[in-house]
Specification:
Blueprint: H1 5-28, E1 38-44, E2 47-52, E3 55-62, E4 65-68, H2 74-88, E5 92-96, H3 102-105, E6 116-120, H4 123-127, H5 139-142, E7 152-153, H6 159-168, E8 175-176, H7 178-183, E9 194-196, E10 199-204, E11 207-212, E12 224-227, E13 232-235, H8 256-265, E14 271-274, H9 282-304, H10 309-315, H11 327-342
Parallel strand pairs: 4-5, 5-6, 6-9, 13-14
Antiparallel strand pairs: 1-2, 2-3, 3-4, 7-8, 10-11, 11-12, 12-13
Helix pairs in contact: 1-6, 8-9, 9-11, 10-11
């Protein structure tokens, strides 16, 4: 079958929706759009946490409407919209994207009739349709192109890219081009109506929410939602509680991630509400940073000593974190991802 570039773009968007279901399942342990575990729990006062399987979002109810975080996906957003209307009788007025990844930011269109969608300015480039049909591979993926043919074949792919390969391969030619990868970024993510650069304050119904960008972390467009009255921060993917960072830091940045966590620590909060896993406190955020610092230190030293990934995977262990979720499964992947990033 021969596909035009326009058709390929459309197919790639559909492919991404399917590939992200597989990719996100590793984080949430459940399906993407329908059913599963959904719940609303109170954090503090008018601040609530929304669960969709193993993904979580957050929302603040005010007399004039709701300020909420990630829509997660279309099915989750439709469920939440109905629940908010039924329980609280006010519309959603703001939807704040944590970042562009489709397993958190899909479904914003559900709220577009009442809400302003907000994201960091870097998000626009990440979800934009590809302008160049002959786009080159992004630098980090170009490093995987061992045969230097301008594409990534399945046997060259690593980590999440390997897991998502078949879904992203829109024309089914057994390789991923720069165009396919660029086309796949958007998924079901609706473009934000407003963007900001460093920080932004939302005021609604006498309540305030601060949005902060602390630099590159899990993505280059990560927004931290800070609720000063409730002393709560909403952090997605780059901070979790008593759980290792996700797999191999795909699309992540080191050591930038450490600085982003440090700046988050500088906020006056008592509760951290991650996009995955359990609620925590300030010390949990500090512990997460300290784990990543220790990992970076040991991997950096290993690279300086000329050791391989396999060498370090056999040598590095962190007994003080061995009780954390996914320790056995993800530590080797954390090491491999840190090695890749720090070797660039």
């Amino acid at each position: 079958m021969s596909l035009t570039k326009n058709t390929l773009y459309s197919v790639a968007i559909i492919a991404l929706s399917m590939s992200f279901i597989g990719s996100a399942n590793a984080q949430r342990g459940g399906g993407g759009g329908g059913g599963g575990t959904r719940a609303i729990t109170q954090i503090e006062g008018d601040l609530y946490r929304f669960q969709n399987n193993q993904h979580f979002s957050i929302f603040l109810v005010t007399s004039d409407g709701v300020i909420m975080g990630d829509p997660i996906n279309r099915g989750a957003a439709e469920w939440l919209k109905e629940e908010i209307a039924t329980r609280f009788g006010v519309p959603v007025k703001y939807v704040v994207y944590s970042h562009h990844h489709a397993d958190h930011a899909s479904g914003g269109a559900v709220f577009a009739d009442t809400a302003t969608l907000i994201g960091h300015e870097n998000m626009l480039a990440q979800i934009a349709p590809p302008a160049d049909p002959d786009a080159a591979l992004p630098p980090r993926l170009a490093a995987l192109d061992a045969n230097e043919n301008g594409t990534v074949e399945l046997d060259e792919a690593q980590g999440q890219l390997a897991n998502r390969f078949r879904g992203l391969d829109a024309n089914r030619d057994g390789s991923l081009s720069g165009f396919e990868l660029a086309a796949a970024r958007g998924g079901d993510v609706l473009r934000p109506d407003e963007t900001y650069t460093d920080s932004m304050t939302l005021e609604l119904g006498g309540q305030t929410v601060e949005l902060h960008y602390f630099g590159k972390s899990h993505s280059d467009n990560m927004t931290i939602m800070y609720f000063p009255a409730e002393k709560t921060v909403f952090t997605v993917d780059f901070i979790t509680v008593n759980r290792l960072p996700f797999r191999d830091f795909a699309e992540g940045y080191l050591p930038d991630l450490i600085e982003a966590i440090r700046q988050t620590e500088a906020l006056d909060f008592d509760v951290v509400a991650p996009g995955h896993g359990v609620l925590g406190n300030r010390q949990d955020v500090v512990a997460h940073r300290q784990y990543i610092e220790a990992l970076v230190d040991q991997v950096s030293q290993g690279i300086a000593d000329g050791k391989s990934v396999a060498d370090l995977q056999g040598e590095i262990s962190f007994d003080q974190y061995s009780s954390w979720a996914q320790y056995d499964q993800w530590l080797p992947l954390n090491i491999a991802g840190a090695y890749r990033i720090l070797s660039e």
